[in-house]
Amino acid sequence: MTWEGSEPEAAGGGDRFPWLVAIASLAIGVWIFLRSTVVAVQERDELQRAEDAMEARAKAYLDASVGLRNAREELPRSGDRIMVELDRHDLHPDDPEVREMAESERSGR
Question: Which of 11, 40, 48, 91 makes an SS bond possible with 86, Cβ 3.0 to 4.6 Å?
Answer without folding.
Answer: 91
